[in-house]
TrEMBL record:
Chain residue ranges for the region called Disordered: 31-57
Membrane topology, as annotated: Peripheral membrane protein
InterPro entries named among the record's database cross-references: AAA+_ATPase, ABC_transporter-like_ATP-bd, ABC_transporter-like_CS, ABC_transporter_ATP-binding, P-loop_NTPase
Organism: Streptomyces polygonati
Segments traversing the membrane: none
Pfam families, per database record: ABC_tran
Record lineage: Bacteria, Bacillati, Actinomycetota, Actinomycetes, Kitasatosporales
Name this protein carries in UniProt: ABC transporter ATP-binding protein
Keywords: Antibiotic resistance, ATP-binding, Nucleotide-binding, Transport
SUPFAM superfamilies from the UniProt entry: P-loop containing nucleoside triphosphate hydrolases
Annotated SMART domains: AAA
């Protein structure tokens, strides 16, 4: 696909090693009273202003060339704040960001030429049709009209969006709109893609199309991908490495397998009771202090031997009649997050 980006992208400066993105000591605080939900009443001082929020609190990251690098963390961990700085849309208070050899703190404008960014909310193109959104992105990225139309056709074809090409984005379902915005992000190929929860709301077919398109660009162009996600299963399947964020800090960074090895000796046992747990049974009462309780669900993270014994206790005796469901699973990145002391309720999006 001819994109014409070669004419518009700033030169890729050699970094001396295979790093595409190096972040050091990144700090970003939202000032007191800032945020979208600042009501007129609050502005008049009728309500106390919200305190300042340190959304990124000294973040270090190294993303290698061609990596699919994940940023995983619970709601409010600071993921979107981080990627908005990586894409030049938000200025850090302190710290450095080097992207393909460019200092993005001094030159945030350069990010637009290096990064294809799919944000969480993409409403800018809502009035446009799917085809026009893709073509307009190409034009905004400096492509000529012919090249932009060719790139549009190629990407709509690749993502099987031909049937929706003439529909305005605002009239599509959430998953369809997300796929259309992803398609537009790919036009005018950038060496780095930053995707903030790209597959939210998509059905499995669309999800597969997204990951196939990402893989193709990594294979053919060595594209580097930074992915923000809540989806632990997706993260474990697609990511090369992952940084786990909690309250604005990176609490771990490794391959998914390397992180899971931190809790390799454990298994997770989920018990769902029909009604109340049968606490009159001593074996069940003994498990209670070890369980994280959410309604009728008990989640236990136990050494393998202890988990085996617990399964025998709940399935072999009178407790079984009180049980609605149970599962035994190897640890996931969710368990790693909790074992590392993550203070959110977990990684699952609320
Ligand atoms: N514009 C803003 N003004 C004030 N506070 C903000 C603003 N944007 C984000 N925050 C706060 O900064 C913190 C980090 O928010 P951020 O959106 O970066 O988290 P996140 O990890 O992307 O969350 P989610 O997974 O829910 O999207 C949160 O406490 C949030 O409430």
């Amino acid at each position: 696909m001819s994109t014409g980006t070669e004419e518009t992208a700033p030169p890729v400066v050699a970094t001396g090693r295979d790093a595409v993105c190096t972040v050091r000591g990144l700090i970003r605080t939202y000032p007191a009273g800032s945020g979208a939900r600042r009501t007129p009443a609050r502005r008049r001082g009728a309500e106390p202003a919200a305190p300042p929020v340190r959304a990124n609190d000294g973040i270090d990251l190294d993303v290698g060339r061609g990596e699919l690098f994940g940023i995983l963390g619970p709601n409010g961990a600071g993921k979107t704040t981080l990627v908005r700085q990586l894409t030049g849309l938000l200025r850090p208070d302190a710290g450095s960001i080097e992207l393909l050899g460019h200092d993005l703190v001094r030159h945030p404008d350069r990010a637009a030429r290096l990064v294809g960014y799919l944000g969480q909310e993409s409403t800018a193109f809502d009035e446009l049709t799917v085809a026009l959104a893709a073509e307009t992105t190409g034009r905004l990225r400096g492509m000529g009209a012919v090249a932009a139309r060719a790139a549009r056709d190629a990407v709509l074809d690749e993502l099987d969006l031909g049937a929706l090409a003439g529909r305005p984005l605002k009239k599509l379902s959430g998953g369809q709109r997300r796929l259309a915005c992803f398609a537009a992000t790919l036009v005018g190929e950038r060496p780095v893609l930053v995707l903030d929860e790209p597959t939210t709301g998509m059905d499995p077919v669309a999800r597969r199309a997204v990951w196939a398109a990402v893989d193709r660009r990594r294979d053919e162009s060595g594209t580097t991908v930074v992915l923000v996600t809540h989806n632990v299963i997706e993260a474990e399947t697609v990511l090369d490495r992952v940084a786990v964020l909690d309250r604005g800090r990176v609490i771990a960074s490794d391959t998914p397998a390397g992180l899971r090895a931190l809790v390799a000796g454990e298994v997770r046992l989920d018990l769902v009771w029909r009604y109340d747990a049968p606490l009159g049974l001593p074996a069940i009462a003994a498990l209670r202090p070890l369980a994280e309780i959410s309604g009728r669900r008990w989640t236990l993270r136990l050494p393998q031997d202890r988990a085996r014994a617990a399964v025998a206790e709940v399935t072999g005796g009178p407790a079984f009649a009180a049980l609605d469901d149970f599962t035994l699973a190897v640890p996931s990145l969710e368990d790693v997050y909790l074992a590392l002391g993550g203070r959110g309720k977990g990684l699952t999006k609320l």
